[in-house]
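Audit log entry. Action: structure prediction of a protein-small molecule complex. Ligand: magnesium ion. The ligand was supplied as SMILES and no pocket hint was given, so placement is left entirely to the predictor. Protonation state taken as written. Sequence taken verbatim from the request; no trimming, no tag removal. Recorded inputs:
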Amino acid sequence: MTTTTAPAPVRRGGGVRALYAGNARAILMRSLTATKSSNWAVVLSGFFEPVFYLVAMGYGLGSFVGDLTLPTGETVSYAAFIAPGLLAVSAMNGAVYDSTWNVFFKLHFGKLYQAQLTTSIGPLDVALGEISYALLRGGVYALGFLTVMQVMGLNLAWSAVAAVPAVLLVAFGFASVGMAVTSYLKTFQQMDWVTFVMLPMFLFSATFYPLSVYPEPIQWLIKAMPLWHGVELVRGLTLGVLDPSMYVHVAYYVVMVVVGLTFTTTRLRALFLD
Amino acid sequence: MTPVIAARGLTKTFGDLTAVDGIDFEVPAGESFGLLGPNGAGKSTTMRMVGAVSSRTAGDLRVLGLDPDAHGPEIRSQLGVVPQEDNLDPELKVRENLIVYGRYFGIPKAVCAKRADELLAFAQLEDKARNKVDDLSGGMKRRLTIARALINEPRILMLDEPTTGLDPQARHVLWDRLFRLKERGTTLVLTTHYMDEAEQLCDRLVVVDHGRIMAEGSPSQLIRQYASREVAELRFGSDRNADAAARLEGLAERIEVLPDRVLLYTDDGEALLERVTDLGLHPTTSLVRRSSLEDVFLRLTGRSLIE
Ligand SMILES: Nc1ncnc2c1ncn2[C@@H]1O[C@H](COP(=O)(O)OP(=O)(O)OP(=O)(O)O)[C@@H](O)[C@H]1O
Ligand SMILES: [Mg+2]
């Protein structure tokens, strides 16, 4: 009983059963347990950042800009215009922070995923669990920010309630893609690319002024970017400007979620279950 | 009865390197099975494939009757794994490490908490329950890793060099605990570099080198088959060992020259020592001992176990 000759080559199979144990909850719970002892200043800053922007830009800059006229003909204050944009941006930032820096560290320095994947956890559980954590944080921020908007009278329509699930979807999309991208990065230098993509998206995606200020080709470029869809979706809901293009925005994020989860799961499997 | 682990032609390659080269073995339920081999032999790679965290390149593998490639989560839910290098969660406290790990198996929180307390006692870490993992000594981390592997009451416990880094007392405590698990019917699969550990714990073992199985059997079978009853160890001083060995040719069944000593395999060590003196050779030290797995290992791989 030593060696056999010419063993049959093996094909990788298994489908969902090899990838998912239906226990993403445990991964989420782990993150929450770890957060208990984490730096609360960082956690809170995620809430205050958009509030500061809103006050500085909405009221400071807004007193110069005055009111804006929407394509529908309605007039809204500048603060009410940028608030939903900032809400979408905070969802993006929260989701991206948790799914890039945190995940990168765990991938390369901690052996967390390696340990999790020696249990009955599958790579899809890890991806979903980590993303849910990013979502939960984004969701709490969004709820807080929406409350601030309500108090300041910036929610102009009943449909603002739907901004909560919308923001969660935005965060879900960014977190999925963020984690997928991160799982392919190897050095801290490459992580700078993430900032390099995010900052211009934040500045130009119609957060602070309507898209119509740009020439048409630039408009198309921005419309291809994910953040614009988030800003438009959330803004439509808080201002009460509902139209069918919202389905496109939602679809955009659903695609991001599916693509992001697929790549993340595949990559985690290649990294830790090969 | 079907074996809990069955490997046929199991192979793993990394690029050009064949880490595991078509090995066959079976482990029946309740057995304590050891993999012995020098550094780089392919032990950890084999353990990882059995643990369903590494896919095989070729061959067939069944763990608890299932194919690890297709049923990873299902198989892993019944395994306890102690990896060669600790991978505890540094962001969690000691007790939290156990509870959270249990949750990964989908075990209810209350059950995890109860087992965590039992396992902290098992690992003698009760007074460290609220410490951070990084505050533990190397040996304590090892004990915590082993405790963690038991949180799901596994059917198979996989231990990759479990006692490396433990002090002698902690090793004996651990052996005792492993023995009790074995009595309760847990299958043990372990790798080790310690011969005494292999002799103590393994019902059966395979000696692996360069990804192949060189020999297989119980510790006593292997010693009978690959070594004589006794060994005489002679030291002549490091630059004279080789010369002396040349003059001892023919005196023993087999002679092994190591950098620091010469080993003579024979059935009667004392008689051999007398003949050495008759030849006019005077080793600086000499000792006769019973053959051990170390000698089997040396014979099969040409290397000593601890390099
Ligand atoms: N992920 C990997 N990528 C490339 N080569 C690897 C990888 N893992 C292991 N190897 C190689 O496979 C061979 C077997 O390694 P393995 O870790 O299985 O040895 P081992 O018997 O456990 O050794 P040790 O006693 O030192 O732990 C080695 O040559 C090692 O370099
Ligand atoms: Mg090893």
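Audit: result stored. Chain A touches chain B at residues 1-10, 12-15, 17-21, 23, 25-27, 29-30, 33-34, 37-38, 110-112, 114-122, 272-274 (CB under 8 Å). DSSP finds eleven helices and two strands in chain A.
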